[in-house]
Amino acid sequence: MSDTHTADSAPRHWGLLPDEVKARVLQKYWQNTRTLKGLLTGKKPFPLRISLKPPRGKAALADMGHLQTYVKQWRDYPYQPLVQWEAKTFRDLDEQRLPVAVVIPTVKALIQFIGDSAVNKSRLWERNMGPVLALNKGLYPALVKHLDTIEKLSLYDAQLVAKTLPQLQKGMGQGHYLRSLPLKGVDTKFVETHSQLLADLLDTLHSNEVTTAGGLRQWLDCAALPKDWLTIRPLDPLSQKALGNLPLLQLTGETLKNSPLPAKNILVVENLQSGLGLPALKTSIAVCGGGRNVAWMDADWLQEKRVGYWGDIDSWGLTFLSDAKARCAHCETLMMDEATLERHKQRVVTEPVPTTSMPEHLNEAEKKLFNQLTGCRLEQERLCADFIQQSLYQWLSDEPEVCV
Question: How buried is residue 267: exposed, middle or buried, by Cβ count under 10 Å (0-12/13-18/19+)?
Fold first, then answer.
């Protein structure tokens, strides 16, 4: 029944009915995840008192039909212990005993008040929390913190959480990756998938040690997963042979920094697809797809190589070029100049989120180009294939004799 329908069509501000109260309780207490978790853990207190807005003054006389409906529906309400009644006296009416509030004293009563949907959900929580609480009832607050995850678990996975938890011990990773943990009956993808839930449960068991260590991986002493993969592509048969005849391989930046590549010329390419489209080049290996990942370019072995850098002509591409030059001062810029931009001007587009900070390590021509871009970009993928080939051949033909 609507709040706004009365006998004279004016908005009704009194006499909430059971369905209306239920809708308000659902919205304020059950569907509000933060509030619900607070109620489940005791951080938000019971009882909950919801005023039914009983009538005052002439309101009851003005709408006797609603008064009768209001009293009858609450008199017929099945959970009477939750309904608070009071005697009210109105002019021209006998004393009336009216419902004035719903008072919900406990979580159990809240679930009962809401009905079947809450009952079913609470049973799911109880089922999935059960195996973990059997280990330690003190883990309940940490489980409530991850209520969304708990709801999505199958019973098997809930049991797997309980099976995994006692096996996780401080330092057991011994510097290996998370996937190599010596667990029994537990796949390590499960640990990875539910790492935050397990971390918070372990924090409860081990006096917040996991958070203090910086997270589950650090507490277990597991190595971080590599995130800075670079694609290595030899561009001539001799370089490929020196790499075990592999046409492509991937290395992390840290590995590459300590692993000299067997070619005179190292061509660093910002984007992977552009690197894969490179022509054959004598005594050359391409390192591509790193984007802004140029930290490896301060490698000592690069000092003995001729190094070229090719990226997008936009504010970020020139910023990455500057970072590369900061680490490898003899790095040569390829196809990132005004002439290249002019030749392909019909393919220039708008740069979505340009940076306005002038990169520090550009030469004067590159700084001028940066200022000219004004939010425009020429992606390296849009350069003509014959232009790329000609430019790279020219770069190699200019190779200084001192290069070893």
Answer: buried
